[in-house]
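Meet today's protein:

…
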Amino acid sequence: MTIRFAAAFALFASALAAPGIAAAQASDSATTEQADAKPEKEKKVCRRVIDTGSVMPKRVCVTASQAAAQERQAELEADRRRSQSGSSIGG
């Protein structure tokens, strides 16, 4: 009786696992296809920066999205400083 139960359990377990195995194989093939396709490299933007106290410019290269994020951060910081200083201009 235990052999029949073990055989039935093995059959049942393999039936449950079959869709998972097929899905895993499909995802593996999709992953392989994605790995074969080279991702587009984001273009880098380079600029020369002269640090305070230095006379030698330093070349700084970042991706376009990083440059945009840095610019946005600088604008937010400038706006924050302006709002903290109040409206003492011309007064």
About this structure: DSSP finds two helices and two strands in the chain.
